[in-house]
Design goal:
Elements lengths: L5 H17 L5 E5 L44 E5 L10 H7 L4 E7 L1 H14 L4 E10 L3 H12 L8 H6 L3
Parallel strand pairs: 1-2, 3-4
Family: Belongs to the isochorismatase family.
Organism: Punica granatum
Protein name: Isochorismatase-like domain-containing protein
Length: 170
């Protein structure tokens, strides 16, 4: 599904994923997929779904696919979510704990919704290190993006650029 601001960061997301793979970091693709009738969609979005008219991120629809250029490869992991946070009503925390992962690097859209909620849940769950790549995440406007980045920094989240993160030991 098209999200304003998202298209511009796709090249940086692709590069971040490649850097992660070279470093041996598990790549988890978090995707939004919903029941075609919208039974698992937030109440405020249910009007987008009706019988005979699957909603914009219905399972199997074009809107639920990764955008062109983003490719799930062997060894990556696909996690389906139905809410803003990748942790809400998913098994992500158990998956990460089972793999001994306590450091997260986050990319994607939309900064004030999915990114922010996932980050705040990760902080609440006491992940040792949470990083948001500021130029591999986006919102509908730069002002909204930067305001949310500011809030995340205030709870201890690292916010480097892709270049800074790529050159670091993290």
């Amino acid at each position: 599904m098209r999200v304003n601001g998202g298209e511009a960061i796709v090249p940086n997301v692709i590069e971040a994923v490649e850097v992660a793979r070279r470093r041996g970091i598990l790549v988890i693709w978090v995707v939004r997929e919903h029941d075609p009738l919208g039974r698992d969609v937030e109440l405020f979005r249910r009007h987008w779904y009706s019988p005979g008219k699957p909603g914009p991120t219905s399972k199997g629809s074009r809107g639920a696919e990764l955008v062109d250029g983003l490719v799930i490869r062997e060894g990556d992991y696909k996690l389906v979510k139905t809410r803003f946070s990748a942790f809400f009503a998913t098994h992500l925390h158990s998956l990460l704990q089972g793999a001994g992962i306590d450091t997260l690097v986050i990319t994607g859209v939309q900064t004030p919704n999915c990114i922010r909620q996932t980050v705040f849940d990760a902080v609440a769950l006491d992940y040792k290190s949470v990083t948001v790549l500021v130029d591999a995440t986006a919102a509908a406007s730069l002002e909204v993006h930067l305001a949310n980045v500011f809030d995340m920094k205030n709870v201890g989240v690292a916010t480097p650029t892709l270049e800074q993160w790529s050159k670091s030991d993290a």
